[in-house]
Amino acid sequence: MKQTISVLVENQAGVLNRITSLFSRRAFNIHSLAVGVTDDPAISRITIIVESGNSVVEQVEKQLNKLVEVIKVRTLDEGTFIGRELMILKVSANAKTRPDIMTLCDICGAKVSDVSTTSMTMEVSDTPDRLDTFQEMMRKFNILEVVRTGVIALQKGAGKI
Amino acid sequence: MEMTGAQILVEGLRREGVSQIFGYAGATICPIVDELRAAPEIGYTLVRTEQNAGHMASGYARVTGKVGVCLVTSGPRATNLITGIATAYLDSIPMVAITGQVPSHLLGRDIFQEVDITGAVSAFSKHSYLVKDAARLPRILKEAFYIAASGRPGPVLIDIPIDMQEQMADVSFPSEVDIRGYHPSVRGNDKQIAHVVEAISRAKQPVICAGGGVFLADAAAELLSFAERTGIPVVTTMMGLSLLPTDHPLNMGMIGSHGNVCANKALAKSDLLIMIGTRVADRAILSPDEIKRRMPSIHIDVDPAEIGKNIQPELPLVGNAKVILNQLLERDLSVDAKDWVAALRSRREEELSREEPLQSGSVTPRLLMKCLGQRLRPDAAVCTDVGQNQIWACRHLWLGGCRFLTSGGLGTMGYALPAAIGVKTAQPERQTVVICGDGSFQMAMNELAAVRAGGMDLKIVLIQNGVLGLVNQIQSTPPYHGPFGVELDGSPDFAAVAAAYGIPSMYVESDGDVERTLDRFLAAPGAGLLIARVAPTASTND
Ligand SMILES: Cc1ncc(C[n+]2csc(CCOP(=O)(O)OP(=O)(O)O)c2C)c(N)n1
After folding, report:
1. What ipTM goes with this model?
2. Pick the CATH number of B2-170 from 3.40.1190.10, 3.40.50.2300, 3.40.50.970, 3.40.50.150
3. Range of A10's domain?
4. CB neighbours of B305 closer than 8 A, spacing ≥ 6?
5. Which of A12, A18, A28, A60 to mutate to test the interface with B (most CBs of B within 10 A)?
6. Domain with A42 in it: what CATH number?
7. Whole-angstrom distance between the N-terminal and C-terminal Cα of chain B?
8. Chain B, 274-303: which have a CB under 8 Å from a chain A CB?
9. Mean pLDDT of all residues in B309-313
10. Tens digit of pLDDT for each residue in B457-503?
11. How far is B136 from chain A (nearest CA, A)?
12. What is the pTM of this model?
């Protein structure tokens, strides 16, 4: 089962290394990991998606908490948070295929960010499964390159972790 | 105050009350070492290989309760220290390791003797710092000592590029630490304490399983009071050995694959398992699932991550063992475990009084350990190595009150001698004995130099069986087909080696001589080596 863990850490060199080394050493599987600074420049937020049962996630949480630079750890319950991922995707495109691609972009809420005589590049931000769907739809146009950020997530409502 | 990084470091060590460093000087640590010349109140022991600086600091820390400090330089010196750091990590020893590093503006260019030591030890250090500004050193030192010693103790590394040691900075020294994400629990939750008291009062056959965490929390006396007040029998892990004297009426021995029969029986038959300061590792409890199926358990540990890692207890209790035991002792504790203890006791006595047929031509390890232990002073310290010698010592060494030290977590051969040197450095008057195998001894015997240089009256008992005994024993048991690569051919004349360091030797070759030789060996002044000839076929299962 995929679980979403939100972690606040001190924004310092070496923190990410400690976290990834912890995951590999304890044989925890990371599905994705996204980092960025918060409103307080001294603190970064990491969103980690792990593919594990509850007892493993509990151990992940505890082990993360042991790292000195980790300030807070919270596993977000399904349905209580907004999780989004950004994807940039490039496909082959010509005058003939362009309209079809545009239609799909419209349906899926993707934005065209670059176009050339032989290609089109789109960006889309959504839940991971919707990104999967969009990627699937684009496949027939010959995908040239894809990049995804991994999910970032925030709790719904006024609460903070 | 305007100071160089090196001056800041040495002043910081003073302020942390450091009185001893185990080290190995080299180019990139020279500015600090130069400052140490001007700090005679800080003792300095030159090791012969850096790994042993870690082990000495470990022995020192374990008997003093202070943070052990080691100091080496960059590159191969730092990598040599790694085993010392990992050994300390697995046994949760409070330690600060300081390494010199190449100049900071050259970091990452693979210049001469550069290694990423903070990266290398990240999986087995509690925390680490790479100093990039000398002005941060006062805070880094304060934090490092605090992190090393608080909560679940462990080694902390500070890597200091040489230019940071030379850099001038205007600093003040903080008197407090406040680390945003680090607040180890100390007191046990009162509600949980009440549940624990209730569970204990309902149990008919409770057993306490105590580990090294009890020592780390300096809670041996509280454990004893708790056991005696409740009458609950105690078993220990290897790291918990010597918490209670061998013949204490409530001590049922050591559990685990190499443990005592009575202790394992107590564990298997109990109806409430009370784990204190133990991580329930595989050597102690082979199948946590089986334990979980059979009986409810209480787990008291300062590290929340230990709870539920190997065994899921009914009642977790996070906090410092000393504080929690005192919280429990404030309560009304009533347990009736008399029949249960009596049954275990008779089994235990049978085990302890077992007589061996005497051998000649070689020594029976069980007899040697029992007689050795019985002759030690109540405040002695014993350090064992790894292998059969360790297992024999764990099972049979008579522990009257002395402190037992071994590398339980990592099982590092060569630990005993340097750890004992660390003990002796801290407490020169304390009777200290090393128990080692002929393989392990050869991993650390270069440190006899420190014994000689320090004029230490350290006693070393060498179990000479001519093989890597434990491996030999494993290879001699199916599915393996027999010993290979375990004969210690070419070993030196150990008495001659000791003599080269000015240390006299004695031999013991048959059981009939054990008691007499031990008496002479222990009574002799100064350092001494006792070479006990043991048959290569002697097994830990005998
Ligand atoms: C540094 C290190 N190397 C190898 C081992 C694996 N090992 C465990 S016990 C043992 C044999 C030890 O031989 P010796 O010191 O002669 O002791 P004995 O078993 O004979 O008492 C070995 C090789 C280890 N634990 N640590």
Report:
1. 0.86
2. 3.40.50.970
3. 2-78
4. A59, A62, A63, A65, A66
5. A18
6. 3.30.70.260
7. 65
8. 303
9. 89
10. 999 999 999 999 999 999 999 999 999 999 999 999 999 999 999 99
11. 14
12. 0.94
